[in-house]
Every structure is written in C-alpha cells, then in structure tokens.
Amino acid sequence: TVSPLIAALYKDVAKERDFYGFLAADRTQSPYQLNNKPLVLSQALINKVRNTPGVRRALEFHDR
C-alpha cells in the first residue's frame, strides 16, 4: 500500500513525457501522457533548410 502523498506524487510525475513519467504511469496504472507539441515552422525556414547543400544531397540520394 502506498500513502496518499506518494500516490499523489506518482500521479503528478506520470503527467510528464519522460522515462520517470512513464515509470510513474506504470506504477499508478495510468495511461502514458505523450504531451505532443507539434512544431510550427515557417515556409521560409523550410525552404532555407531544404536548400542547404547537405539536405539537397540527401534528397537527391533519396530520389534514386
């Protein structure tokens, strides 16, 4: 049996998307919290990265 304080701490840690959060979720039989935060990238940044020499070579290699 776990004290209410420890159970509350486990529940709090289980909200995190990391190793200890997943362990705490297992311990409390809670679902994993993936806390997805999608990246928002501007088209200008995407074009800048896409046009760097290394990425261009990789894309050309991938197209083969």
From TrEMBL:
Ordered alphabetically, the record's keywords are: Signal
Entry's InterPro entries?
Answer: Lytic_TGlycosylase_superhlx_U (IPR008939)
Q: Look up the domain of life of the source.
A: Bacteria
What GO molecular function annotations does the UniProt record carry, in alphabetical order?
Answer: hydrolase activity, hydrolyzing O-glycosyl compounds
Q: Name one GO cellular component term.
A: periplasmic space
Q: State the name under which the record lists this protein.
A: SLT protein
Organism per entry: Pseudomonas savastanoi pv. glycinea str. race 4
